[in-house]
Every structure is written in C-alpha cells, then in structure tokens.
Amino acid sequence: MIELKSLSCGYFSDVILQNINIKIDEHLSILGANGSGKSTLAKAICNLIDFSGEVSIESKNIKELSFLEMAKGISYIPAKLEIYDSFITLEEFVLLGRFAHKKSFFEYSHEDKKIAKQKIKLLGLEHLKAHTLLSLSSGEQQLALIAAALAQESKIIIFDEPTANLDPHNSKIIASYIKKLKVTHQVILITHDLHLACYVENPILFIKDKNAHLYGKDFFDDEVLKELYGVGFCSLAVKYE
Q: In CATH, what class is 2-229?
C-alpha cells in the first residue's frame, strides 16, 4: 500500500502538485493533461525528486528507506529507455535488475542469473538476449524494461507512458503484459491512452489543477470525460482485445 499525506512538489518555484492526500491500496491508473503532474507524482512516490509532506510504502516513510529497500519495494519503468552503455546486451541489462538483491560487490549469483533468464524467457526475448539494447526496436526495448523490473522483484511496478512510442501492434503486446502483471504485482499505470486505461481496468486517479481525484468505472462516461478534458468524446469504440 502507498499512502500520500499532504504531498506537494514541483520544480524550482513552480508548484506542480499541492496537498495530495490519498491511499493507494490497489492497482491504479493515473491520467491527466500534458504537464498536469502525472510523472511528477510517480517520481515523488519513488523518492526521485524532492517533495514536502509524506510518502509511505507499507507504512514505512520512504525518506527513511535505503536505496536497496526502495528498489525491493517499487520499480519505475520510464516511457523510453535511456541507454548509457552502447554495448550492453539485453541479458546484461535485465541482470542489472537484480542489483538490489546482489550479495557480492563484484559478481551476480547463480540465482540472480537464473531469475534474469527466467524473466527474459517470460517476455519472449530469448532470441534477443545477446543483442545490444541499441539494436532493439522501441517495442523490444520496452519489453526489456519490463523484464528488468520483473527481475527486480519489487511488489509495486509503476509504468510511465509505456505505449507512448509504440505502434498499435506493440501497444497491444505491452497492454497484455501489464494486465497479466496485476495478478502478481500492484500495478500503477500512467498514460494518456484512454483505450489502454479502459483495457487495464484500474481505478482512475485524474490530476488537474495541482490536485488529484479518484474515479471508478464512471470515469469513462462521455460526459465525465468531456468535463475533465474540456473536449467532446465519442464512446471508446476501439479497444484492445
């Protein structure tokens, strides 16, 4: 469970989110307009940016948790893979997800390597394990990010715009994996894609005017969408199947 108490944050003097109070004890999708603070909220939850107020995971204040404790509790998957090593292979990258569990400073254990290989196989990436990340397509890189997060074995996974750079075919593949992960993880999804949010079937946290409001299935009512986004909507006829 994640709990936010009087959370406020932003960048420099620009306040993005103000006085957010919410308990997240189940799966959640976070929506809102560009610049509303969706990713900012995720980064605050992961203690990646400064904030005032309190964020706790399983009743533990994240500011009191070590880097390794945070890594075991929560994974953050960005919208796009940033590659800092041009020669790192997919297998090596996924193995990095085991860093929080690594017992030796120098070597990953046999168990670490076994888990990394299992996650690569789970996502159907075995034939690409020796390929460099730079040689992979956007869809394959997104799957690599998911594999690394699964290898991390954290209880909570945050997806930040996972289909933003993908074509419809790869978007469908990623959507399917996200939905399956709800069985084993607490999934928090940040997206602009209303069809994806509808398919995943999470409660909705909508961010607007520096605050956040929770919605259930009523969020996808055409009149509610029109009020929140300020434009008219037709029914969400196009859906992942």
A: alpha beta
